[in-house]
Amino acid sequence: MPARTHPTRPQRRGPAQSGIDVRLPWWAVVLPALAFAVLLLLISAPGQAHADAGDAAVTHVLQRIQQSLPL
Predict the structure, then answer these.
(1) pLDDT number for residue 30
(2) DSSP characters for 21-59?
(3) At CA 64, angle to CA 63 and CA 65, rounded to 5?
(4) Distance of CA 48 to CAs 8, 10, 14, 45, Å?
(5) pLDDT value at position 58?
(6) Which of 51, 70, 47, 69 is nearest to 60 (CA)?
(7) Higher-pLDDT residue of 10, 67
(8) Residue 24: burial class (beta carbons within 10 Å; 0-12, 13-18, 19+)
């Protein structure tokens, strides 16, 4: 009884099945989208951000950086 041989050429797939099959976990799509949304909200509403009153050194540094930026 002869043994079966494997084909040397890959079989062609139909047009719907050609390409790379990539499956991402749900968090690989949701986390970057969520991070983008949070950063967009932070950029769009900078007037609502307040520095902590107890840390004057950080507030002073942030004010100096803001003054040095050309707006």
Answers:
(1) 92
(2) -----HHHHHHHHHHHHHHHHHHH-GGG----TT-HHHH
(3) 90
(4) 66, 60, 55, 6
(5) 76
(6) 51
(7) 67
(8) exposed
**How many residues are there in the chain?**
71
Quote the tokens at residue 14.
């139909």
Q: How many CA within 13 A on the CB side of residue 21? A: 4
CA separation for the pair 61, 68 (Å, rounded): 11
Residue 14: helix, strand or coil by DSSP? Answer: coil
Question: Whole-number mean pLDDT of the chain?
Answer: 75
What is the model's pTM? Answer: 0.37
